[in-house]
Each structure stands twice: as C-alpha cells, then as structure tokens.
Amino acid sequence: MKVSVEIITGTFIDTEVNEDATVRELKEKIATEVQLSVSRLILMVGHEEERRMVMEDEDEMMLKDLGVREDSHIKHTFVC
User: Fold this and answer.
1) What is the pLDDT along the chain (80 residues), one digit of tens a residue?
2) What pTM was computed for the model?
3) What region holds the Ubiquitin-like domain (predicted)?
C-alpha cells in the first residue's frame, strides 16, 4: 500500500509498504530517506482531531492495526 509521510520540514515522502507492514518496517524506509537512525523517528497517525504519537513499544504493531490504510497521511518528527 502507498502511504505519504510528511517530514517535520514539510517535505513529503511517498512510499510503498506491504499491507501487513509493521511500524518498524515503515520507520526503516523513512530512516533511509532522511538519513536518521530508526530509534530517533517518531510517527504520528490518525486524523487531525485524533492524531497521536506512535510509542516506541508499538514498533512491532501492524500499521493497519493503527488505522493506516492505502494513501494514509502520516506525520513524522524525530528526537534530538
């Protein structure tokens, strides 16, 4: 499935992930693009009024279990 990840700078990364991909797998794809360690990436999922951070202990959850679907828009930030 294709998802769009908005980087904190306002740049978008469109990437393909398997329907059963985990949060960690998506973070690995993003880490390659932005050249950061996976451990520094924080994803935010959900619609504006329901948006929440995906906690590190949720990295093995499937994206679909967090409501991520085809053409979902995910926000990304990172820790210093």
Assistant:
1) 999 999 888 889 999 999 999 999 999 999 998 888 998 899 999 887 888 999 989 999 999 999 999 999 999 887 75
2) 0.87
3) 1-74
